[in-house]
Design goal:
- The complex is a heterodimer of chains A (342) and B (139).
- Chain A has 342 residues and is an alpha+beta fold.
- Chain A has 2 domains: 13-176, Cysteine proteinases (Cathepsin B, Chain A), CATH 3.90.70.10; 184-341, no CATH class.
- Chain A has helices at residues 13-24, 31-37, 65-74, 86-98, 153-160, 184-200, 208-243, 253-267, 271-297, 307-341; strands at 41-51, 54-60, 77-81, 103-107, 126-134, 137-141, 149-152, 172-176.
- In chain A, a hairpin with a 2-residue loop joins strand 1 (41-51) and strand 2.
- By secondary structure, chain B is mainly alpha-helical.
- Among the domains of chain B are: 3-36, no CATH class; 66-126, 434 Repressor (Amino-terminal Domain).
- In chain B, 35% of the residues are buried.
- The chains are: A alpha+beta (342), B mainly alpha (139).
- At the A-B interface, helix 7, helix 8 and helix 9 of A face strand 1, strand 2, helix 1 and helix 3 of B.
Chain lengths: 342, 139
Amino acid sequence: MIPSFPHRQSAHCESGVAANLLTHHGLPLSEAMAFGIGSGLFFAYFPFVRINHLPLTTFRSAPGRIIRQVAKRLGVHVTFRTFRDEANGMAELDRLLAEGVPVGAQTGVYWLPYFPPALRFHFNAHNLVVFGKEGDAYRISDPVIGEPVLCGADDLKRARFARGPLAPKGKLFFLKNVPKTVDPVPAIREAIRDVCRLMTRIPIPLIGVRGMRYLAAQVESWPSRLGERRALLYLGNVIRMQEEVGTGGGGFRFIYAAFLQEAAAVLDERRLLDFSQRMTAIGDHWRDFAVAGARLCKGRPGGNDDFPALARIVRECADAEHGFFRELDSLIRNVGRHADRR
Amino acid sequence: MRRKDVPQDQGLFGEWKEVSYAVDDDGRYILVQSAGWEPANIANHIAWESIEAEVGEVLAKVRAGKLSPLAYHMARHQMDPVLLAGYADLFRWQVRRHMKPAAFRRISSALAERYAAIFRITPGELMKVPECDPPAGTR
């Protein structure tokens, strides 16, 4: 067993795994920093992609992207490996553990016995770190659980080879050639500009703030198009993607605000603190959407809770984020110019 | 979100707590444990209710002889024929066929064992539905 794996509970599994692995290899990093440098913030609404018969709504970038981006921007090499054969996949994990390497793994959550039963859906893009083997059980640092846990070999095998959408195929990943020190400034700048681009300049109406406005229009049409029952199912699904475990609250907006606050110190740029506060306010407004939506789901609408009112909140979030990312982009551009002149 | 506003609405997680990001009195971001948040609990509850409703409908059809017990075990595990076919290394039309009572009764014992292993039950349990259905989310 790797004696001192720095397990820290995180809000989101992928940024948590990235931060904990880098910290283990001598590059101490907070979860928020990993989330920000991995440009994890995102929005997309894909009505034609169905998860459990419900349209895909996401407030984060595609699974796997955070780890890849963090590694690339910090100059760390990550090896990814998938397996056709389950026995091979487990043997390779044992081999790496014997070498003293903590190993990241993509798993489904449905078969993880230590996971809270209420969250055990067929979701296959969960990340965790395996850092030891004791008898027939593995010692696991699961970033959304408070303490490291033990997980039986058969359960872990099932989770690693879960089937269905985003099937992990036993995917393992580990870090190599981690530099002693890195300059986080260019990594942070590049990451922020990447998010600004994704949120405001992708000419597809389903992505970024355009996607939010599209969702708003859809929300308005749900009751007449789908009927009350399915409209509420769709609405509940958006709330889950926004607020359920792994989001840090407010559709990842609070984690991103925490990242901007840390980035302000690293870049020595006080104006980023104002942006952090604005992002917090945007996250709070997304939570207003969840509150009003949940009241509607419970059949106890307040004064103005109906689908058009919900759509209005989403539009307000879209407007706020549009202004936010455009201004943030121009600020970061200018910070860059000053840095170049020095 | 401020530290004092971090919700502690215990819902479906039991002892377990998630962490959320909140701002302390000096405006600094900190990680705070949360027992859950009512709107998220409600949304989670809706998802489970929908699964329960599906299981109930399937169970009624199995008891009426319109579907095989396989359809029940599948719904109980939140699976559809496509996902179960993935786990069983079968074609989805084969799984669909086995959802019919007559075809299911004739499956080989090897295939029954394969299905049973996926659901972690015995082949005997696979061929029938339980007397009373345990509520999901409590297993």
